[in-house]
Every structure is written in structure tokens, then in C-alpha cells.
Design a protein that fits this description.
- By secondary structure, the protein is of the alpha/beta class.
- Among the domains are: 5-193, Rossmann fold; 467-637, ANL, C-terminal domain (GMP Synthetase, Chain A, domain 3, 2-Layer Sandwich).
- It is built from 21 helices and 28 strands.
- Strands 4-3-5-6-7 form a five-stranded parallel beta sheet, with helices on both faces.
- Helix 12 (293-314) crosses helix 13.
- It is globular, with a radius of gyration of 26 Å.
- The chain starts with a helix and ends in an 11-residue tail after the last strand.
Length: 648
């Protein structure tokens, strides 16, 4: 492999000029760009950017949802040897200042008026941001800020330049080498400033091709690009693999239309974090609870058959003539229509990653005929480290090392990775680079885990988070907070969980209810509520949470390693944890340390044996205003179980 992303674009445009490359839904109609059309657009943007002064080695920020012209701008920047940096579109202006300053960014392309306003606010703190281009002109007619311009104008000037210099773009693309920097992704670190992860064309394309080879992907695939482009998971699936394989990427009209667009597109290759699969299943179960008796009975009977035969059928194991007949009937009546309703009827390969997925959730999708699998990777590894082969998908592992990857487990249980897809460096941070990349090429993942007897990798938690209980009956017992949190989040009524216990005598947790799921549950029981805070503190909801917690405790009691991590006390928070309030990262990972400090009064109440505690918390609204939410929270005890002794 000796290529770059712009060369891959040129290859597709040359070999299959009229084949569809990317679609966008606009005003309810899907608009298609061919590879030839896309190549011309990239050429014109590249020529416009060169005229505007963008030079080789310079960084350019791109902020917005998945849009064809944003993708084209990333390719245009790479054509000139510049380095695109996608940033999260829901990040506040203050969060953008560090990445722009760190990468000395002068140029950015944003999607719309919301992002323009954000960049103009950023420019007050970082005046070096001299050029701001926008894709969608709505609402921007009267903006006269210096350096602000429409992408249309850039394209028009680039088109004139290209006509006068017909060889310019191709000559610029030919200058690039596979080991040149292709992109930079800022990690949404749970502590401190984010780090810029630098990746080369070679690393990203190698991992894209390794993943494509593993699952036999080709140009006939259809993909829906709906997750943030700043997340490397979305970037790999809808950019790196898109250009590597030449399949079609479909961009939804908006976040609100994703479910509808998913059904219209019917992707063959699908990627979503567990929370998306949880949301889909929750919506199905809510609808079924509201259905008539006959439909509900038929659904549950067919799902029992699916649970019995579906996973074996998906794993290629025999299920017998009777099993095949029963499953076939269920497929005709329930599973097929359900897959169609979810928009997953054509899915050949579906992946989930980012967090652990609940066994019941995982089994549900595989039971109804969706080839859902797990993968393991990170921003620093260009995603693809481990993948689950067909017929070997299990909820408790993340797969086997894929092509070119070596894995070993350090003495402290940390997973070490050697791969062609490793980061080149953390930008301007040699100290952090040296901490994760050893001299002999091993990357320290900071994840704790082990390789099981079948060669599959199992992840327990972050190494730094694996702690010990201190004092009490479980003195010295291992405590893996993420493992406990994930077990709680496997319940559809629990959206987030924060487990505490390292250095303490017992484990306590703070919970967020899933407002939609618990709201529906409450309505079916004629339980009135006046909003999230009111619903979260209902005695009936606490009883529901208690049942979930005690089921987790029963599971933990059967785990010899983590039986001491059973939950002694819990509370339900008065507000949802939110990235805008600093409680979650932009990829929805819990910032446990920050939450422990912010809610210190609740932590002390949990460990002090209090039965209730008043709290008032400042929150940030979507429009930038701030306010406060207050409540007197209940604190409850939970039953713990004696460790289950396994037979020798």
C-alpha cells in the first residue's frame, strides 16, 4: 500500500466516474454525488484554499455534522498537504480554544450559523483564526465579519483557478507521501486538556483495509454517517474505509431524521455505540407495551423462540428441522418486520464499540438475525485492534487481534498493542507520547484485560481505575468501577452510573434514570410526574432501581474476582449527567473524578449513612444560559450477597 486519501479519490473517479460516492438528504430528497463530481468539487475547493493562502503542513479545522462538502474540504486540505482537524459540533466555544491554539489554526470550515457564531466567539480569545468558511448560508446574509465567507465563493474562485491551472491539483496530490500526516484527532480526555493524536495516511488506510478485509467489504456497501465526524470511529467507517473500499456514504438530513433515514437507506454495514442500540431496543419495547394483547403475546412468544434458536443460527450451528420451522415462522411474523422497522433489514455486518454492551441487548439483536459484533480500538490505534469473526461473536469479549496486530498483557494487567495503525505522536506533547509509546513500538492502552482460552480479548476496566476496597468485610478486594457501571447500564431503565469505592470500605453508586424508558414505565402505572427531577425521586422509581442494583449484586457474588464490588448504597441524581456541565466527555464517557469532586456532598452522605441530602447544582442550557437544579435526594441501602463458591 503506497497511497494517500486524495489518490484513492482520484482512483475511484478514474475507474468508476459515474458510480455514486456520497448522498445527502436535503428537503426530504436524497441528492447523489458521483466519484467524478466529488473529485471536481475537491479540486475546486483545494484551488480556492491555495489561493486563500493555505500551505502544506498547516492545520485546518472542520466543524459540523456529516456533510458531503465538509468531507470534500477535508480531502481538499489533504490534497494540498494540509492537515484537517475535525472537532465536535456540540462542543462549546471555550472547548474549541485549546485545539485551535495548540494547532495554530488559521483556517476553518463550519457547517452553519450556529458554528459560525461559535468561531466568532472563539476568535475573541484566539484572534489568529483569520479565515472562517461556512457551508450552509442560512441566517448569515447580514454577517460582515472580516475573514468570514461562504464555501460557495471559495469553490467559485477555485473553479476559475483550476481552469487556468489544469494540472495544479494533480501535481499537488502527487507530492504527498503515505507517511505524511493525514489528520489530527483531539481525544476527549477525562482529565486535563485534550491531546492531538497525529495519524499518517499509511496508518489510517492500513487499518481501514485491515477492517475491510476482515469483513469482506466492497464497493457495494451502503453506510449511514450519523455520528460526530470528530470521533475517529465515525471517521474510519465513513471516511477512511469509504475511500479505501469505494462504497456509498449516506448523510442524514439532521439528527432528528436519523431513524427515518436509516429505514430509507437500509445500510449493509452499520456502526453504533451501545447507547444507540439500547435506544432502538427501548423504543421497540415501549411500542410493544402499548400494543394490543394479541400483538404483545405474539411478540413475546416469537422472541422466546428467537432467544432459543437465533444465536445458534447466527453462529452457524444446527438448530434442527423443528427449530428452523419455528424460527422461519417467527421471522415471517416478527423478526423480519422488526428488522425493517429498525432500518437494519439489509445489514450484513453491524459493529458496536466504545463501551461494553449488555449480554441481553447483544443477544436480542443476534437473535432476530442481525450480525452484531464487537470491536476494540481507540483514537491512538486508528480503531481496528480486535474484531469478532462471524460465528464467534460474544458479549463478554471484544474479539481477536486483526491483521498486523500483536497484543501482550503487562504484569499489571495492562493491554499493550503493536500495530501499523498506531499514532505518530501526540502533537507538541513528547512527554505524553513517550508515556504511551515504548521505544520498541508497543502502545500502552491503559486498559486492563486478558486473552481468554479462545484467543479473544476481554477488557475489565481502565488500569488507573482498577482499585481496592480498604477496611470493612471486603478489605483488599478488587474494585473495577467501569465493570460495575456497565452492569448497571445494561438495564434499559438506567442511562448512566458512577461507581465509587477505591480506598473506601464499600461500593456506592450514583445513577441516572433513562427518562424515556422510566417515563413510559411510570405512565403505564398511572404514576404522575412533573419532569426528570420529580420522576427520579419517586419511591416507586427507587424500588425499580433497587431491583436493578440487587440483580447486579447477585451477578457480582458469582464472580470470585469482583464479589467484593457489590453495591451497598445508591442514590438517583436529580439531573442527567451532561457533557456541557463537564460531567461526561464528548463521547459520553463518565468523568468519574470530576463528578466525585462536584458531588462531594452526596459522596459523603452515601458513606456517612444519611438517608437524604439536599443539593443544588448549576447547569448549562443548550442556548448558553445557566441555571440551577435543586432537590432533596433519597439515599438507599441495597442487599448484598455472600460470594458464591464454585465447585473445585
Amino acid at each position: 500500500m503506497h497511497t494517500t486519501f486524495p489518490r484513492l479519490l482520484q482512483k475511484h473517479a478514474s475507474e468508476r466516474p459515474q458510480a455514486p460516492a456520497i448522498r445527502e438528504k436535503e428537503y426530504g430528497i436524497w441528492q447523489t454525488r458521483s466519484w467524478s463530481d466529488l473529485a471536481h468539487l475537491v479540486e475546486h475547493i483545494a484551488c480556492g484554499l491555495r489561493q486563500a493562502g493555505l500551505v502544506r503542513g498547516e492545520h485546518m479545522v472542520v466543524i459540523g455534522a456529516n456533510r458531503p462538502r465538509l468531507y470534500a474540504t477535508m480531502l481538499a486540505a489533504q490534497s494540498l498537504g494540509a492537515i484537517p482537524i475535525p472537532l465536535y459540533q456540540d462542543a462549546a466555544a471555550a472547548e474549541c480554544v485549546f485545539p485551535l491554539n495548540n494547532a495554530e489554526v488559521r483556517y476553518c470550515l463550519v457547517e452553519d450559523q450556529e458554528q459560525v457564531d461559535k468561531m466568532l466567539e472563539v476568535r475573541e480569545q484566539y484572534p489568529a483564526l483569520s479565515h472562517i468558511y461556512y457551508d450552509d448560508p442560512r441566517g448569515l446574509r447580514n454577517y460582515t465579519d472580516p475573514g468570514l465567507g461562504a464555501l460557495d465563493e471559495l469553490v467559485a474562485s477555485g473553479q476559475v483557478f483550476a481552469q487556468n491551472h489544469p494540472d495544479f491539483w494533480r501535481e499537488e496530490v502527487d507530492k504527498a507521501q503515505p507517511d505524511d500526516v493525514a489528520a489530527m484527532f483531539f481525544t476527549s480526555g477525562t482529565t486535563g486538556n485534550p491531546k492531538g493524536v497525529v495519524h499518517t495516511h499509511r496508518a489510517l488506510i492500513d487499518r481501514a483495509e485491515a477492517g475491510a478485509s476482515f469483513d469482506k467489504l466492497n464497493s457495494a456497501e451502503e453506510v449511514l454517517a450519523y455520528l460526530p465526524p470528530a470521533w475517529i470511529g465515525q471517521n474510519i467507517f465513513s471516511y477512511s474505509q469509504w475511500l479505501s473500499c469505494g462504497y456509498v456514504v449516506n448523510c442524514p438530513e439532521s439528527g432528528a431524521t436519523v431513524a427515518i433515514d436509516l429505514r430509507e437507506v437500509g445500510p449493509t454495514y452499520y456502526f453504533a455505540p451501545p447507547r444507540v442500540f439500547e435506544g432502538l431496543l427501548t423504543s421497540v419495547m415501549i411500542r410493544m407495551e402499548d400494543a394490543g394483547w394479541l400483538k404483545r403475546t405474539l411478540f413475546h412468544k416469537c422472541m422466546a423462540i428467537a432467544k432459543r434458536f437465533g444465536p445458534d443460527r447466527m453462529d452457524g450451528k444446527p438448530i434442527g428441522a423443528l427449530g428452523a420451522l419455528q424460527y422461519g415462522l417467527g421471522n415471517l411474523l416478527i423478526y423480519g418486520p422488526l428488522r425493517n422497522t429498525l432500518g437494519l433489514s439489509r445489514v450484513r455486518v453491524a459493529y458496536t464499540a466504545g463501551e461494553a454492551i449488555g449480554p441481553d441487548l447483544f443477544t436480542f439483536y443476534r437473535s432476530i438475525g442481525i450480525n452484531l459484533k464487537q470491536l476494540y480500538g481507540s483514537t491512538e490505534t486508528a480503531v481496528f485492534v480486535c474484531l469478532q469473526p462471524d460465528h464467534e461473536a460474544r458479549a463478554d469479549t471484544v474479539g481477536v487481534p486483526c491483521q498486523g496486530v500483536e497484543i501482550k498483557v503487562a504484569d499489571n494487567g495492562e493491554i499493550l498493542v503493536k500495530s501499523p495503525g498506531l499514532l505518530k505522536e501526540y502533537y507538541k506533547n513528547p512527554k505524553a507520547t513517550a508515556e504511551v509509546l515504548s521505544a520498541d513500538g508497543w502502545y500502552h492502552t491503559s486498559d486492563a484485560g486478558f486473552i481468554d482460552a479462545h484467543g479473544h480479548l476481554k477488557i475489565i476496566d481502565r488500569v488507573k481505575d482498577v482499585g481496592r476496597l480498604k477496611g470493612g468485610a471486603n478489605d483488599g478486594a478488587m474494585f473495577a468501577p467501569k465493570y460495575v457501571e456497565n452492569k448497571l447500564k445494561f438495564f434499559p431503565h438506567i442511562k448512566e452510573a458512577v461507581a465509587l469505592g477505591d480506598g473506601r470500605d464499600r461500593v456506592c453508586v450514583m445513577l441516572n434514570i433513562d427518562f424515556d424508558a422510566v417515563g413510559n414505565w411510570a405512565e403505564r402505572r398511572n404514576l404522575p410526574y412533573a419532569g426528570y427531577t420529580d420522576l427520579a425521586q419517586k419511591p416507586q422509581v427507587y424500588q425499580l432501581m433497587l431491583e436493578c442494583v440487587e440483580k447486579v449484586n447477585a451477578d457480582l457474588a458469582a464472580d470470585a474476582l469482583l464479589a467484593g464490588s457489590q453495591i451497598s448504597r445508591f442514590l438517583v441524581l436529580h439531573k442527567e449527567l451532561d457533557a456541557d456541565d463537564g460531567e461526561l466527555t464528548r463521547t459520553n464517557k463518565v468523568r468519574r473524578g470530576y463528578i466525585g469532586e462536584k458531588y462531594a456532598v452526596l459522596v459523603e452522605a452515601l458513606y456517612g449513612g444519611a438517608t437524604e441530602q439536599y443539593i443544588e447544582t448549576q447547569v448549562k442550557f443548550e442556548d448558553g444560559r445557566t441555571g440551577s437544579v435543586s432537590a432533596t435526594l433519597k439515599l438507599s441501602d441495597a442487599k448484598t450477597f455472600a460470594p458464591v463458591k464454585t465447585a473445585a
